[in-house]
Write a sequence for this structure.
């Protein structure tokens, strides 16, 4: 008889061994997985677990305060808090959500999944009354108490929020319904549209704004005790104390046509706003690329000073933009361990303060001179004069035409900018319509970004450059015959020589100082011709032309095409090598010599003009200008000007405003009386007028956005230096009035008041300040 048990046993053992092997393999795989989780991925999983057991709240950091040189606050953060209430709390859905969460927790997820919808609803309803009571009696009661109003006021505010959200929802549903009907007609399925909800029915809404720390902390306690009911949101407002200022402008020492014993009240809007700049809350991709708060695609904080992707406070223009990283602080963090009920708080670090070189009181004084109320920044008949028969001279623009302009006041020793302004301001521009903004261009900071032909204010630089190159000698005279080219009597001529008008006056032989005072064109055509264009351009570049003077306020911007541009200052223009070569090729004799009087292929900014004159006043030492208060004065770049040439140039600038033949000495009134402009007690003033041919001005007489005519005008310049009587120059001033005409008659009277403003603010010594006060008491 065969034994069949043995083969059966063998098969059973083989199966058992196979199962055992499979089990061992599975155990090994589980062990490997456990080892991987325990050792290789432990940190990641622990971090993920901790994330669920930890809540994190960011605390805002205030921006640094911006001060002027005397400690006046120019821009500061006023920290506050907003309180938001969740829409679900307002509508009562919060109670239903809490009841459902309680039921799910008590029953368990597995058991909950087996319940029918009806049973789930029953379980929620059994717990709903308690949560509704909590919401009504506790949460709403605490909100009303913390907010300082009664329940009826709270209900009114809730009703307003709900009504506003429902209006938005209704508008959205109507738009969806109309779109569906247009697309599908009678077949449109619009049933689901009625259940469409909008963001306003999901998000939190502002209940209170600008609350104190005490109130904010009270609401935060409510939020901690009853999550998803209220949110305390950090808020801050950037306050610019000098944005709107009322200023009493004294006019006792104005030129007589606009003089008055009574000051005029001037409402200034946007004092220093171009330079200070602004902040924005919209975050751009380049902001995130430069500095982000969270790692990309993660909630991990990588830089507490970085930007949130949705909304943040970012310096947008001016100093706010340039000094963004300096002014921006580091957020604080409050982390709460839910498992152990432990809270860790890391305080925010405020941004650093910044002190500008600007004197805001001087800034306001000077800006007031450009106001409509002053009467100085508009076309007036006394600026044009009268002909020998007593008839008013006509001009390209009507009397009363408002003139835009710019000014710069610079400390010569340090290169610090004390005041710099542009009209219209950004604030004034916001009140304009689109057509007017296009014409007036308030977005341009004319003091630093506006580019204009220099005109005759360039002449002192041409002279010292010629002296440095040895093409003019000390004491040398050049004869003015009225025209530069012997064969062309009506072009490239002196400004006083107009034979076609019956005026054949010439200056005759002139030395440098008198040529500057009289602003003789022939003298400087000759110097430009002797220098040659290449050497003249090189010297003008040494004085700062053709390069943007950063002034510590220029802002780098990356365009959509990836190119980098700068705003805040402008380089303006000079002839380049290609243009000079083209003049030579065409045998152009006129363009090179026109450079000698600041016309033709030249432009610069008021900042460049003031800094060039400051360089001259230092004896030829170039110091870059700045709007930031300096802790030490840079050594500067020595240009190597002959001392005698600097002395002669300053003598000419002094004659220009102090001698009766100087172009900046006086204005002539209707009765023929010559009224001095710069006869100011206790001050020594040097200056140069400039009347620079401007591009054709487009006129839109009916404000319809279409050009009605184009007229030829001149820009009015005055650039000067000032010091207490008998001392070396201390401050440089540049004044420009666009399309104003005569530099001496239009810009000169404004510059005279700038010098008086410096004296009034104590910059020119106690004697000058007393003299100014005495003038105002007359």
């Amino acid at each position: 008889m065969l034994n069949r048990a043995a083969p059966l046993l063998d098969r059973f053992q083989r199966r058992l061994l196979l199962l055992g092997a499979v089990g061992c393999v599975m155990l090994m795989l589980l062990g490997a997985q456990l080892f991987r989780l325990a050792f290789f991925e432990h940190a990641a999983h622990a971090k993920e677990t901790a994330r669920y057991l930890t809540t994190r709240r960011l605390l805002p950091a205030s921006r640094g305060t911006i001060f002027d040189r005397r400690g006046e606050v120019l821009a500061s953060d006023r920290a506050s808090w907003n309180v938001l209430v969740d829409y679900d709390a307002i509508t009562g859905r919060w109670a239903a959500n809490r009841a459902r969460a309680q039921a799910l927790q008590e029953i368990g997820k597995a058991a909950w999944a087996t319940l029918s919808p009806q049973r789930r609803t029953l379980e929620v309803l059994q717990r709903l009354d308690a949560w509704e009571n909590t919401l009504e009696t506790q949460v709403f009661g605490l909100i009303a108490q913390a907010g300082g109003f009664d329940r009826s006021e709270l209900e009114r505010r809730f009703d307003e929020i709900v009504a506003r959200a429902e209006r938005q929802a209704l508008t959205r549903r109507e738009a969806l319904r109309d779109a569906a009907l247009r697309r599908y007609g009678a077949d449109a399925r619009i049933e689901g549209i009625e259940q469409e909800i909008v963001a306003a029915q999901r998000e939190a809404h502002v209940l209170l704004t600008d609350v104190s720390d005490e109130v904010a902390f009270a609401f935060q306690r409510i939020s901690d005790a009853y999550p998803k009911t209220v949110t305390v949101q950090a808020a801050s407002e950037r306050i610019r104390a000098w944005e709107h200022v009322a200023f009493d402008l004294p006019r006792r020492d104005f030129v007589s046509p606009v003089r008055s014993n009574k000051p005029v009240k001037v409402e200034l809007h946007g004092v220093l706003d171009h330079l200070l700049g602004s902040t924005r809350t919209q975050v751009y991709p380049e902001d995130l690329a430069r500095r982000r708060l969270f790692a990309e695609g993660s909630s991990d904080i990588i830089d507490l000073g970085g930007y949130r992707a949705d909304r943040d406070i970012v310096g947008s223009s001016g100093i706010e933009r340039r000094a963004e990283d300096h002014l921006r602080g580091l957020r604080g963090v409050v982390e709460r361990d839910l498992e152990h009920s432990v809270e860790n708080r890391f305080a925010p670090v405020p941004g650093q303060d910044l002190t500008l070189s600007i004197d805001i009181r001087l800034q306001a004084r000077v800006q007031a001179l450009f106001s409509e109320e002053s009467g100085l920044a508009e076309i007036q008949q006394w600026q044009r004069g009268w002909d020998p028969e007593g008839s008013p001279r006509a001009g390209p623009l009507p009397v009363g035409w408002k003139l835009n302009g710019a000014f710069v006041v610079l400390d010569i020793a340090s290169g610090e900018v004390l005041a710099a302004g542009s009209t219209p301001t950004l604030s004034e521009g916001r009140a304009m319509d689109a057509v007017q903004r296009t014409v007036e261009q308030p977005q341009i900071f004319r003091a630093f970004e506006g580019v204009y032909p220099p005109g005759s204010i360039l002449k002192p630089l041409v002279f010292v450059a010629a002296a440095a190159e040895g093409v003019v000698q000390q004491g040398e005279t050049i004869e003015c015959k009225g025209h530069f080219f012997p064969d062309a009597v009506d072009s490239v001529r002196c400004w006083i020589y107009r034979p076609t008008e019956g005026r054949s006056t010439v200056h005759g032989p002139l030395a440098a100082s008198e040529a500057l005072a009289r602003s003789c064109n022939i003298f400087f055509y000759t110097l430009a011709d002797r220098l040659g264009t290449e050497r003249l351009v090189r010297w003008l570049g040494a004085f700062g032309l053709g390069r943007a003077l950063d002034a510590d306020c220029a802002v780098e911007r990356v365009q959509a095409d990836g190119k980098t541009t700068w705003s805040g200052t402008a380089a303006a223009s000079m002839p380049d090598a290609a243009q000079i070569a083209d003049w030579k090729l065409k045998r152009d004799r006129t363009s090179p010599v026109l450079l000698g009087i600041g016309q033709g292929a030249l432009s610069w900014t008021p900042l460049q003009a003031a800094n060039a004159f400051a360089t001259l006043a230092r004896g030829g030492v170039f110091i870059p200008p700045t709007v930031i208060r300096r802790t030490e004065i840079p050594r500067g770049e020595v240009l190597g000007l002959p001392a005698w040439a600097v002395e002669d140039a300053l003598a000419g600038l002094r004659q220009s405003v102090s001698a009766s033949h100087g172009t900046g000495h006086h204005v002539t009134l209707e009765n023929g009386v010559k009224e001095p402009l710069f006869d100011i007690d206790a001050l020594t003033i040097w200056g140069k007028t400039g009347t620079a041919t401007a591009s054709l001005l487009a006129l839109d007489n009916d404000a319809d956005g279409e050009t009605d005519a184009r007229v030829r005008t001149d820009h009015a310049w005055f650039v000067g230096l000032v010091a207490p009587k008998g001392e070396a120059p201390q401050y440089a001033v540049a004044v420009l009035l666009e399309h104003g005409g005569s530099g001496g008659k239009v810009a000169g009277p404004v510059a005279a008041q700038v010098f008086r403003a410096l004296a009034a603010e104590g910059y020119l010594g106690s004697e000058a300040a007393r003299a100014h006060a005495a003038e105002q008491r007359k």
Q: What stands out?
A: Residues 5-40 form the longest helix (36 residues). The longest strand covers residues 73-86. The chain has 26 helices and 29 strands.
